[in-house]
Description:
Keywords: Cell wall biogenesis/degradation, Lyase, Signal. The protein is an alpha+beta fold.
Amino acid sequence: MRSGRVPGRKQARKLVALSLLTLLASCVNVIPRQAGPELPPAPTAVALGVRPGPSLADLSLTEKDATAALAAFRESCPRVMSRTDGSGLTRPDDWRQACTAAANWGAGSAVLFFVSYFEAVQVGDGKAHATGYYEPEIVGSSRRMPGFDVPVYGVPSDLVRARAGDAQPLASGKMPLGRYGGDGTFVPYYDRAAIEQGALMGRGREIAWAADPVEFFFLQVQGSGRLRAPDGSVMRIGYAGQNGLAYTGIGAVMRERGLIGDGPGQYPGSMQGIMQYIREHPAEGRALMDENKSYVFFKALVGDGPLGALNVPVRPRSSVAADPRYVPLGAPVWLDLDRGEADGLWIAQDTGGAIKGANRFDTFWGAGDQARTIAGGMSARGQALVLVPRGTLARLGVG
């Protein structure tokens, strides 16, 4: 951060208000990027059933779309060739030919690249549901100053997985996250309320400071974002970990209690409505946010984009989050939806706590007002195809 006049609280409040005007363009159906509770084992794509899709030459691939997807695919290749595919569709070596070609692909047709090296697979019935997410920007600073009092924490050193025998394994087989108390007993980690009441203060884990706790709450839901300081400098932060406690969507809680909806006396069922309620009812709003016991920890990011589950930058209009049990991370995905702006070729580079099941996707739109508007209103239905390296169907015995 450049040196300059330290802002007072009045200036900080003004910056918060300006940021909210753009943040409130988003709707409540934006899907949380943070990790949710671990789900029990479920069928993979292979177990669910796959069938050949149409020839890629018959899809309406455009050069613009394919060129952006090729760039995103190229960035994913080192990870694709070194990780285990949880969907059962591919093996690391299956990607070698396509990735070698991608690395050396010059100015030739990007559509031709995908047609030459991939074939389409329909997972299950192929019926797709796609939502959207974006990279929010809120007022914050890499150092504490008047009006910037909400800590942004890195992963605490005492957040660990239980040793075998110290706790019951999760349904996935992993040991749960938590901490060891002074007597050596493993206990759940501090929840949101405890952390916000100061459970982690004084440990030196603060990586930045936000100006508004409500804005920061919604940035946590997204799982990554930007902090813009009064001097105009920007710090990008990304998901680094989570406290191991279950995610609760407060919009659903408010709807169940009749606080939001279309009825008389109810607040609008949107992010605007949720935030309006929280600000007009501070005590109830604080209690409502605390019902989401999940708490996200961040790390500072260096680069030109937030990192997805493959640890490579996600790209606007090219990256999509998917359930890795049904889509190989790094694989191209073809979407044909009732929202034209989400049609086309995407690369599965991310996951999400609410992105579960076959043909469930979350499209990434970047940052800024337009991204917030599109992501906030995105809820599209249609068909999906997963693109896998040529020869995959034959190896799987799918005719």
